[in-house]
Design goal:
Order of helices and strands: HHHHHHHHHHHH
Radius of gyration: 23 Å
Structural class: mainly alpha
Distance between the termini: 36 Å
Number of strands: 0
Shape: globular
């Protein structure tokens, strides 16, 4: 790589970083603005918007509601996705490619199409719009990501691990829970965090499948209809910080587990 190419690549990378992070910085700054309207110049600074978020019963209730949905759908996605990955990974059978394609289908369908179809399907099952419908919808969308991550991890597991367990008298179920599942722990943590963030941040499916109780993205959308306010920036900044902390914790945990593997 020549010197001019390195300079060009550095400029492109710098422009990408600016494009990615400047909007986030502006969002955080506007959350400290001592005014009811978003915009420059910022003549005063205040923490009132952040304090107001923690004192707002509606926001706290919606946050807990969204977290309940995210955790529930993530646990279901991990259980179903891991089972599918274990079924598809080591086995060779006719129709495997078709099953794999059907498993990945919810991840590639446009969100609005997926939300409408899930709403229709929920009504056919006589499931009322609300928490259960959203959890099932998010689970359907998240399962492919779990299956892909777990299958990738399974492909790196030495066959001697399971064979040694079988030689010691363990059946398939015991070998899976005592040998394979601990080996999959880094992949499960990564997939779980990813699914949780997808579910917590999802708007389209929560909007179509939700009832009278909104999730946090739906609440922010409703607040935006009455105009931009620094309170929205404060809520978004808090969610951004929690997301970053969760992601860093997951990355550190996976790195530690991979070193110990």
């Amino acid at each position: 790589m020549t010197r001019h190419t390195r300079i060009l690549m550095s400029v492109i990378y710098g422009a990408f970083v600016v494009y990615l992070f400047v909007p986030l910085v502006l969002m955080v700054l506007m959350g400290f603005k001592d005014s009811k309207f978003i915009g420059f110049p910022i003549t005063g600074w205040t923490m009132d918007w952040y304090l107001g978020v923690f004192q707002d019963t509606e926001v706290l209730t919606v946050f807990a509601y969204s977290m309940t949905i995210a955790v529930s759908s993530t646990l279901l996605s991990l259980a179903i996705g891991t089972w599918i990955a274990a079924f598809l990974g080591p086995n060779r059978f006719r129709g495997k490619l078709i099953i794999f394609a059907l498993t990945c289908l919810p991840a590639v369908i446009p969100g609005i199409i997926s939300a409408i179809s899930l709403r229709i399907f929920a009504r056919l099952l006589d499931i009322e719009p609300g928490m259960l419908a959203i959890i099932l919808g998010h689970t359907v969308h998240n399962v492919p990501f779990v299956a892909l991550v777990v299958m990738a991890r399974l492909s790196t597991q030495p066959k001697s691990h399971v064979e040694a367990a079988r030689d010691l008298g363990a059946d398939s179920i015991v070998a899976f829970f005592r040998v394979t599942l601990p080996y999959l722990k880094p992949a499960l943590i990564g997939a779980g965090i990813f699914c949780m963030l997808l579910s917590f941040d999802d708007f389209v499916r929560a909007f179509f499948l939700g009832g009278y109780q909104p999730t946090l993205p739906v609440l922010i959308f409703a607040m935006l209809r009455s105009g931009m306010s620094p309170e929205i920036n404060a809520i978004s900044t808090i969610v951004l910080i929690l997301t970053a902390v969760l992601g860093l914790w997951a990355e550190r945990s996976m790195r530690r587990l991979n070193k110990g593997a």
